[in-house]
Structure formats: C-alpha cells, structure tokens
Design a protein that fits this description.
The chain is mostly helical. The protein has one domain: Four Helix Bundle (Hemerythrin (Met), subunit A). 79% of the residues lie in helices and 0% in strands. It contains eight helices and no strands. It has helices at 3-10, 14-21, 24-33, 39-48, 52-68, 72-85, 90-95, 98-121. Helix 6 runs antiparallel to helix 8 (98-121). It is elongated, with a radius of gyration of 15 Å. The relative contact order is 0.17.
C-alpha cells in the first residue's frame, strides 16, 4: 500500500499533508508515529468518566495532531468536540451532540489505527 492509498483509506488528505510536511518520507514517519499518540484514547476515556475538562484538553490535542497530519476524518470531529467543550462555549455545548461526535471520531480513529498499523507492518 502506498502512503497516498493509506490516506485515501483513512479519510485524510495526502496532498495537504505533503504541502505541510514537504516530503513523503516525513509524512510516512509521522503518520506511523500517530500510533503512539494517546490524545484520542485520552478523550474517549475522559468523556466516558464524565470529565469534560480533561475531555476538552484531549480533544484539543487530538485536533492538533490530526490537523497537522491532514487526517481530516479525525480532525473534523475532534475540532467540533473541542469547540463544544471549550470553556465559555456553553451555548454551543447545549446544541451539540457530543456523544455522536465522539462515536464518529472513535470509528475514524479505529479505522485509522488499523490501516496505519497494516501500513507500518509492510515497511
């Protein structure tokens, strides 16, 4: 599987990642390192125990990691969760179905981890 194929499979933008990181070798290096990032799992754990402050911090971290790697299918729900949980955004929090966004992110995350793991094993 090529790196472009991986990005297609996980709902990312290879071209955007290439414009940001400037070299395919760097994209490959950092996308594999994504497997070591715990921000998404930290978000799921914090949300399940009802810790909105920790969930916000984890969502914010996940948003940054996913956006920097152009993992769009993860960055979009992580960004929406971040904004809904941001202190001072109570009106947005009331109108946002965070549970649905968490499940959207979880599905994208599980798919990404599975596909990135397969990609890493093929190197």
């Amino acid at each position: 599987m090529t790196l472009r194929e991986l990005y297609d499979q996980i709902g990312g933008s290879y071209d955007e990642a290439l414009s940001r990181l400037r070299a395919e070798k760097l994209i490959g290096k950092f996308v594999v390192r994504f497997l070591d990032d715990h921000s998404c799992q930290d978000l799921f754990d914090a949300w399940s125990r009802g810790d909105e402050a920790a969930a916000f911090e984890a969502a914010h971290a996940a948003k940054g990691v996913c956006a920097n790697l152009s993992l769009t299918s993860l960055a979009m729900p992580a960004s929406a969760i971040t904004e809904a949980l941001r202190p001072g955004n109570e009106s947005l929090r009331v109108t946002t179905d965070v549970d649905s966004l968490i499940e959207e992110l979880r599905a994208a995350y599980e798919r990404a981890v599975e596909r990135i793991s397969s990609y890493a094993e093929s190197l």
